[in-house]
Specification:
The protein is of the alpha/beta class. Helix content is 44%, strand content 17%. The N terminus and C terminus are likely disordered.
């Protein structure tokens, strides 16, 4: 096969490849569709489908016997398709039977507590800390496993094999996010042992069982393990190959310990799919730029490693080879055996994820073709891999990862070569044309599926993938070198990891830069209707693009418009959307069920009051306002819906100080804030009534909580008047800016509100212009404070369709009865207060505007909130309404 090295298959001459062989594509797609549909089909119907397809296939073959090959070819093709349907239906039925075998499903329906022996089947995953209500939910270890033995409460023991999902509540040390927004920094030893379990490990656990949420799940039950501080009870150690794979993965993590944060997180994920160090911030950046496939091992990794052995993929259909094998004098069949062993090791070390299985199966089929001297067209190899994998594991048919992997590979094999040729005919350099065609083709086919998963379409995916592509291969090769040498020569592995860290840093930098662009993506319907619409739009863009290629000037104009849409220079969004208003004084950010405010403190500067529950949303709000400098962050209290987004405020901005309440509860969130402040050397201080400060045109006075007694220790004893807990310890501010007075009440409950109305600061609270309603507009408000404040405009921060009933209709009605216009972020999105004391205005993020003149009462009907629009004057509403 390679004349220079003498590699020939017998005395035969190299075979010349003909047209692409598509005969295996319809059977593979039919088997895939059948496997995807079978979980929703009753077992009896599934068996009938399999039997009917098999019988019809046999009838077609028998009817075609004795006829000319040309006339029987369509019958044979149809028979093969039906045979694959029958095989897929049978396999799916057999796999589905596992979900009903043994006592586990019945015990789950009874929510019974049982003792079971389970075998781990995949690497455990540690969930991210998340906000639920006002608290941060500690991480949970998710473990996919098979129940092998069940001991019921009556002592009966049953041997079975039933797939389940274990949820291990480790809890310890999970107080909050680390300073870089990653996982909690202090997981206890029990959590580390659970999350470090290797596949094939057998455990004995006592669990509370429950049925899966959806009938289409690939598990028979959910088993919850209470393991706070407890280590797993290991019955049998993992197998030898898994222990070896575990040592290799641990060696790679150790070799990358000294790298910068992004490289340390990305390199193990790129090489072996170890994403344990990926921070939520970095993960979000990769999703925004459609680079998420580089966060975990994919088929590209195996292709790169296989190319070292066989040569460039472009020579896969030719007689020549340029890899290491011919240079070392290794024969074709030996090369194929080595490649097969490499594929097996690849799956074991990198774990059998959908893209890994697809790449290994496709590569193995191609290696078999090399060994036998048969045609090596990669599209039939892909179809064969899909068929074999779907028959082996029908659950892959419903895996989005498997679908994206196959679509990307199909795009590279079908569309990319044609687009590359078209670009080269128009004068684009070959290497650039190939890279651009590959990134564009994969994006075109995968974008509709990605839109279903993320409800967003990236506008920077193609350029970011194009820029990152040149770094993937060196990072992968150097990462595998570190993986292989770590067990025997750690200094060598560290050197390889250090070299691989440079391209890994480049990839992470591309992701962060692309995600930081204001127009990096656009929201899109996250359902299959939206996917179909995006597919049609993509086809339209491609058809128009073919014509534009003939007109370079029009191509340049479109490119400039796209760049402007993505970069969005500061004047541009304001011209087209009106947001943010040029004279905004305060903005209530739309952060969901939480609080976050920004007070204008000069050009590019703003005082932030609370950070909401999500770092990404507050960061987006601050970027839209052009805030690069934060003189002060005020965290009214430590509930997670007010402080969990702090890392988003600190992201890429200079922060002067952080001011909080003196009551350090909940303790986990207070500790998380202290860690983040210490990591960035930001002063942390406590606010108390009577404090007055100024920043640029902005001044404010702390009106609550009262100072702590001199003998109190911060965080251990609540200040006077805040015995009700963290809500009553909220920092309340009276803000003055441009002749406006704004009262920000945090989450104060009625007892603290009554104390505030009787406090020395009460005299300054009469007749404020804007009221930030306490506790997301809940029903718990003090009428006396509401009457005293008598706001002209009341703003409520709460999440759309929240389960708390915020804002409460009674609160909205009471505010409107006082003559206030009431707006809330759940209906109106982000809200910006503009104007001066003589003309108060509020603008929504969509550019709608409401005006209200000083001294004019009225403002709409009762209940609900007022829409943003029009002018309120002389007691009547123009262009806005209260519902």
């Amino acid at each position: 096969m390679h004349a220079a090295s003498g590699h020939r298959l017998g005395a035969a001459h190299p075979r010349q490849e003909g047209p692409t062989d598509l005969r295996l594509v319809p059977p593979a797609l039919a088997a895939w569709a059948t496997a995807a549909l079978m979980p929703d089909v009753a077992p009896g119907w599934a068996a009938g489908i399999a039997t009917g397809a098999l019988a019809l296939s046999g009838a077609l073959l028998l009817k075609g016997r004795g006829r000319r090959p040309r006339r029987t070819r369509p019958r044979v093709s149809l028979a093969a398709l039906l045979l694959c349907v029958a095989a897929s239906a049978t396999s799916a039925t057999l796999h589905g039977a596992d979900l009903h075998r043994g006592p586990v499903p019945a015990l789950a329906r009874q929510y019974a507590t049982v003792t079971a022996e389970v075998e781990v089947t995949a690497d455990p995953r540690l969930t991210r800390p998340r906000v639920r209500g006002n608290r941060a939910v500690p991480p949970t270890v998710l473990i996919e496993a098979d129940v092998r033995r069940v001991t019921e409460t009556d002592g009966r023991v049953t041997v079975t094999r039933t797939p389940v999902l274990m949820l291990v509540d480790v809890g310890e040390g999970a107080g909050g996010p680390s300073p870089d927004g990653a996982r909690p920094t202090r997981l206890g030893p029990g959590a580390a042992r659970w999350s470090g379990l290797l596949p094939t490990t057998r455990l004995r656990v006592t669990v509370k069982s429950a049925p899966p949420r959806e009938s289409g799940d690939r598990i028979a039950a959910v088993l919850r393990v209470r393991a706070v501080g407890a280590a797993p009870d290991v019955v049998a150690e993992p197998s030898g190959p898994q222990r070896l794979a575990g040592r290799l993965r641990a060696g790679l993590r150790e070799a990358t310990d000294g790298l910068p944060a992004d490289a340390r997180a990305l390199l193990p994920g790129l090489v072996v799919g170890d994403t344990s160090r990926i921070t939520p911030e970095l993960e979000e950046a990769f999703k925004e730029t459609d680079l998420a496939h580089t966060l975990a091992v994919s088929g590209a990794n195996f292709t790169i490693v296989l190319a070292l052995l066989l040569g460039p993929p472009g020579l896969a259909q030719r007689a020549e080879r340029r890899g290491l094998a011919p240079r070392l004098g290794i024969s074709l069949r030996t090369t194929a055996l080595l490649g097969g062993g490499l594929a097996l090791a690849f799956v074991v070390v990198c774990r059998p994820d959908p893209s890994v299985l697809r790449a290994a199966a496709c590569g193995s089929v191609a290696l078999f073709a090399v060994a036998t001297g048969r045609r090596r067209s990669l599209l039939p190899a892909l179809a064969t891999a899909v068929l074999l994998l779907v028959l082996y594991d029908p659950g892959l048919a419903r895996s989005y990862g498997f679908l994206l992997s196959v679509l990307a590979t199909g795009a590279l094999l079908t569309l990319a070569p044609r687009w590359s040729g078209a670009l080269q005919r128009r004068g684009v350099p070959p290497r650039l044309a190939e890279a651009l065609a590959a990134a564009s083709a994969a994006q075109a086919l995968c974008a509709p599926v990605v839109a279903v998963l993320s409800a967003r379409v990236s506008l920077v995916g193609v350029p970011c993938n194009l820029l990152a592509e040149f770094a993937v291969a060196p990072a992968t090769v150097l990462g595998f070198a570190a993986l292989a040498t770590a067990p025997v020569a750690m200094p060598v592995a560290e050197g390889a990891a250090w070299c691989g860290g440079w391209p890994a840093e480049w990839i992470a930098g591309i992701a962060r830069t692309g995600a930081a662009l204001p127009g990096a993506g656009v929201d899109w319907p996250g359902d299959w209707t939206g996917a179909a619409l995006l597919a049609l739009l993509t086809v339209g863009v491609l058809l128009v693009g073919r014509r534009l290629l003939r007109h370079p000037w029009w191509c340049g104009v479109c490119a400039v418009l796209l760049v402007l849409a993505v970069v969005q220079p500061p004047p541009l969004p304001r011209v087209f959307t009106g947001w943010p208003p040029p004279d905004w004084r305060m903005v209530m950010c739309d952060v969901g069920q939480g609080d976050a405010l920004v007070l204008a403190a000069g050009e590019g500067a703003g005082v932030v009051v609370d950070a909401g529950p999500d770092p990404a949303r507050i960061d987006h709000c601050l970027r839209s306002l052009g805030i690069t400098r934060v003189p002060l962050v005020v965290l009214t209290h430590f509930h997670a819906d007010h402080v969990a987004g702090l890392s988003g405020v600190l992201r890429g901005r200079s922060v002067g100080a952080i001011e909080t309440t003196a009551l350090g509860e909940p303790a986990d969130q207070a500790e998380a804030v202290r860690r983040q402040a210490a990591a960035r050397r930001i002063p942390l201080r406590h606010a108390a009534a009577g404090e007055q400060r100024r920043s640029g045109p902005l001044s404010w006075q702390v009106v609550w909580p009262p100072p702590s007694p001199p003998t109190a220790v911060a965080g251990t004893r609540p200040p006077t008047g805040t015995e009700g807990g963290p809500n009553d310890a909220s920092v309340a501010l009276l803000v003055r800016t441009a002749g406006l007075r704004l009262l920000l009440l945090g989450d104060l409950e009625p007892p603290a509100q009554r104390e505030l109305a009787r406090s020395p600061a009460a005299a300054a609270l009469h007749g404020v212009d804007v009221l930030k309603v306490a506790h997301h507009g809940s029903a718990h408000q003090d009428p006396g404070l509401m009457r005293k404040a008598a706001p002209r405009l009341a703003l409520i921060s709460c999440g759309e369709e929240n389960t708390y009933g915020h804002p409460a209709p009674s609160t909205v009605q009471a505010l409107r009865a006082q003559g206030a216009m009431v707006l809330s972020t759940d209906r109106d999105g982000a809200l910006a207060v503009t104007g001066t004391g003589g003309a108060l205005r509020v603008a929504g993020a969509e550019g709608r505007r409401t005006d209200r003149r000083r001294g004019v009462g009225g403002g709409g009907g009762e209940g609900g909130t007022g829409d943003v629009g029009g002018t309120v004057g002389d007691g009547r509403t123009v262009g806005g309404s209260g519902n």
